[in-house]
């Protein structure tokens, strides 16, 4: 099969075009496929060169490397007859002859192959490159597109907001192709509604409550015909709120003579609450309670405080 699939083509002079030929059988070797030109006398003229790997439309991530070899189908062809050239924006060709550097050529005599080597690809390495046979004028063009992996920018991992406010969890994502972003909290995907609104650089949570606290996930997806990438950034949201007394706080505490009694106060608060105890004295009203005066001890836990009186 060929791609693109058109068989009747018309193109303007001084333009370029690429068509790929491949087998529907995965066991077929690349050496089993050739391109030939049909001459006026109905003879077939085989293309003098081939490349390996055979892909002509390439996409690779930035800072990665890639090597493609160009060789002749004629064993009598000299390696010096094959060159690699970069196709410039004005459609001119610039020969690549440097034996080192980020984009360079490398010769192999056994077998006779001229390699085009991309090391630590960068954005400016994107473009079209041509393997050219100087004698037959045959050429094969490859198109290199350098993609940028997903990166998170201005994305704090911890966010603190007051109850009833409307904070934005910032998650700014960059990459090429442009990443697609989805949000979830825990294992539950977030859908946009009156509570949540996805922005270009984050997630707006309106009128938050303490129930909205938790770990949110900013999931970025990137895909093309040849590349995929996925990255996740976790953002922990802490909702601060004033103390609220627990419903199960007892109103009375009982104890036995010569025994102990526990008086417990428990709240829900973020950040954790500090406790102060007071004692109501007849005719004097509320007075600070000092445990040592009564031989009592304080048992302090997170959002829970107990006086143990003997």
From TrEMBL:
Coiled-coil ranges (or none): none
Domain Ig-like: 53-147, 149-228
Keywords of this entry: Disulfide bond, Immunoglobulin domain, Repeat, Signal
UniProt-listed Gene3D superfamilies: Immunoglobulins (2.60.40.10)
GO CC annotation: neuron projection
InterPro entries (alphabetical): Ig-like_dom (IPR007110), Ig-like_dom_sf (IPR036179), Ig-like_fold (IPR013783), Ig_I-set (IPR013098), Ig_sub (IPR003599), Ig_sub2 (IPR003598), Neural/epithelial_adhesion (IPR051170)
Protein name: Opioid-binding protein/cell adhesion molecule-like
Species assigned in the record: Diaphorina citri
Gene that specifies this protein: LOC103511480
